[in-house]
Specification:
CATH architecture of the largest domain: 2-Layer Sandwich
Radius of gyration: 19 Å
Mean pLDDT: 79
CATH class of the largest domain: Alpha Beta
Shape: elongated
Number of strands: 3
Strand content: 15-25%
Length: 125
């Protein structure tokens, strides 16, 4: 019998880890948690003082990421989140902030229980 993959999104990695523990107790052995991000590259958390350490790019300062490609860095600086020239207003979708992806691989007989457990922990499937 083939396994079933269930994908779910969460707002908080701790909530996803709590859900992972609950899924493991159901007998789901393959669970993976990742952060989904629109921008590739490392985070710029290590940069604390742009005056003394230098500013690699606008994306590093405003988006919290660095790029290996100069082209990607320039393109990301034009994004409204970085430049502020076209700030978002009004109705953001209800998926905003759901950047934690939980992937569970389970027996098809457990799928309904897995989905119910995810939803009871605040996840979206």
């Amino acid at each position: 019998m083939k396994d079933q993959a269930v994908l779910a999104s969460f707002k908080d990695p701790d909530t996803a880890r709590n859900c992972e523990a609950a899924l493991n107790s159901l007998g789901v052995s393959e669970v993976q948690i990742d952060r989904v991000d629109a921008y590739p590259g490392d985070t710029a958390d290590r940069l604390t003082n742009f005056i003394s350490e230098g500013l690699p790019s606008l994306a590093a300062a405003t988006l919290g990421t660095t790029f290996e490609s100069k082209d990607a860095s320039i393109l990301s600086a034009a994004h409204p989140d970085a430049s502020g020239f076209a700030a978002r207003t009004g109705d953001l979708t209800d998926t905003t902030g759901y950047d934690i992806l939980l992937t569970a691989v389970c027996d098809p007989a457990l799928t309904e229980q897995v989905v119910a457990t995810i939803k009871s922990h605040g996840g979206r499937t």
